[in-house]
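Worked example 2:
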Amino acid sequence: MKRRTFTQSQIRYLRDRAEEQYENMRGARSFRNVSFLMYIALVVLVALTIRSFIAEPIRVEGDSMIPTLVHNEDMLVEKMSYWVNDPLRGDIIICFYPGYIESCVKRVIGLPGETVEIRDGIFYIDGIELDESPYWSGEIIGEMNPVTVTARHVFVVGDNRNGSKDSRNPSVGSIPYAKVVGRVVAVVYPFHEFKTFSRVIYP
């Protein structure tokens, strides 16, 4: 079989085509790398957006919401409803206390303009006894003189009435709407403890 020979011009042509193919392949690889990085950035952006503005899981720290919420459970907190609606009595909310950098989980019992007090181990709102039987069955230790909730604030307490630092403490007081992060809608972990929360409807 006769061996084929190439002219110099043919060799140059083949070499140029090979270099061109190599550059095309390198460009395609770079494009794929950039596309992948853009995809990762988009996923991270979407995740951060959801976490910041729509919903996020938050771990319960402490016992102030026993028996409703237990230490080390993971809550799902939704944030969208308070874009257009104010917190209501019975909501379990995530909020920030004055000077705190860690969030707290509490229940709203007092609304703007209402007068809250504790007499004989019971909360009264504008002089009417608050029926808290859906989540509390004990007696509150200590009295609290009448306190009027400031405009665009809420009065919050822990369901563990005798083991919670909350709006009853003068250093906390009522919480401004701007410090309310969102509403707890479920316990999502541990999985066997999964449960959802609806707003308590008081008589």
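The radius of gyration is 30 Å. The chain has a mean pLDDT of 85.
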